[in-house]
Amino acid sequence: MQRNTAKFYGFLVLVLGLAGLVAGEKQLFGFLNIDIALDVARLLFAAVLLYVGYAAKTMKPVRASLLAIGVVYVVLGVAGLFSADVGGLLPDKLSVFDKVFHLVAGVLAIGVGAKSADQGQPAHATA
User: Fold this and answer.
1) Is this model's pTM higher than 0.85 or not?
2) DSSP letter at 125?
3) Average pLDDT of 120-125?
4) Is 77 buried (19+), middle (13-18) or exposed (0-12) by CB count in 10 A?
5) Which residues, other chains included, contact 87 with Cβ-Cβ below 8 Å and sequence gap of 6+?
6) What is the helix (H) or strand (E) element at residue 108, kind and residue range?
7) How high is the pLDDT of residue 31?
8) In the chain, what is the straight-line distance between the N-terminal and C-terminal CA atoms, in Å?
9) Phi, psi angle pair for 120, to nearest 5°
10) In this structure, are residues 50 and 14 in contact, taking their beta carbons and an 8 Å threshold?
């Protein structure tokens, strides 16, 4: 589940980052903030998530990546609630959709990343 989540988020964030680069400095579809800072961050996150989703040899980097990126997304969403331009870091303001997306995606990534690898596996009987 963790690898699939990393792959899914990786592709989703990759599409958002590429769409942002193509669209330029404005809101995509009128509700998704895009600017160069977010686009570069999205592309970096996508690279990490796709790498761990497809190439990581163990689950440790998959979980760590989901947790770290999830925390960044939650922090961005919470910061956006208090300051739409995240304290002047973003040239364009985060929309309501941006804030909700970052909070929900972050919480889900943290939730999936926090699951241990053996959760959901049947318990082995001991004799």
Assistant:
1) no
2) P
3) 39
4) buried
5) 79
6) helix 96-114
7) 67
8) 30
9) 85, -5
10) yes
What digits encode the pLDDT tens for the residues 38-73? 888 899 999 999 999 999 999 999 999 999 999 999
* Cβ proximity of 32 and 13 under 8 Å: no
Residues with Cβ within 8 Å of 89's Cβ and at least 6 positions away in sequence, in order, are 37
What gap in Å lies between CA 63 and CA 5, rounded to an integer?
Answer: 10
Q: How many CB atoms lie within 10 A of CB 8?
A: 13
Angle at CA of residue 6, ends 65 and 64, nearest 5°: 20
Tell me the C-alpha to C-alpha distance, in Å, between residue 88 and each of 34, 74, 79, 80, 85.
15, 18, 11, 11, 5
Residue recorded with tokens 């761990």: 52
